[in-house]
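Appendix C: a fully annotated inverse folding record. The material below is reproduced so that readers can follow the format used throughout the book. The structure is listed first as tokens, followed by the designed sequence.
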């Protein structure tokens, strides 16, 4: 009986190792989402859904590279699969939406840092008034800016109901 027990032990360890390898391989898909879904997330469709809502602020997509680089320095240097960035059409409105899917998931922290730098610039500090300029707009950037990451997708939402937008973004990966 003891002899069979010792021969089963290596087989069990091998089976566990194989299960671990298979589970890691299943999580390594190119979709960039944590759900394991085989369907890629369509950030353009998400953007259109948000902005077509009657309560959505008027946003202007950034398509010029110089403007993108001025507002989000370093973002254009990161390889992306999808990228939609839109700002408020009026500077006195605190509304902005940036949706990025990076080609390499290791770039997610860099995108998060770029988005945080955008918030920090808009808010300013005691020495500088901030790019948002108007006190109410600065306060909105402070209170209503959210950076959310899910897999290889990162979102910056500056929206009056930013928590709702963050929930909708996360729901894409459920």
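Designed amino acids, in order:
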């Amino acid at each position: 009986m003891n002899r069979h027990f010792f021969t089963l032990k290596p087989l069990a360890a091998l089976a566990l190792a194989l299960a671990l390898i298979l589970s890691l391989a299943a999580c390594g898909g190119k979709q960039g989402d944590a759900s394991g879904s085989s369907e890629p997330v369509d950030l353009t469709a998400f953007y259109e859904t948000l902005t077509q809502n009657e309560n959505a602020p008027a946003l202007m997509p950034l398509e010029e590279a110089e403007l993108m680089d001025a507002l989000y320095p370093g973002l254009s240097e990161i390889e992306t699969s999808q990228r939609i960035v839109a700002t408020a059409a009026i500077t006195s409105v605190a509304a902005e939406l940036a949706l990025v899917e990076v080609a390499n998931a290791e770039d997610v922290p860099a995108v998060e840092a770029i988005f945080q730098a955008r918030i920090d610039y808009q808010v300013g500090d005691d020495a500088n008034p901030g790019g948002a300029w108007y006190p109410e707009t600065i306060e909105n950037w402070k209170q209503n800016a959210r950076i959310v990451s899910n897999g290889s997708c990162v979102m910056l939402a500056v929206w009056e109901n930013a928590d709702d937008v963050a929930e909708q973004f996360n729901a894409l990966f459920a």
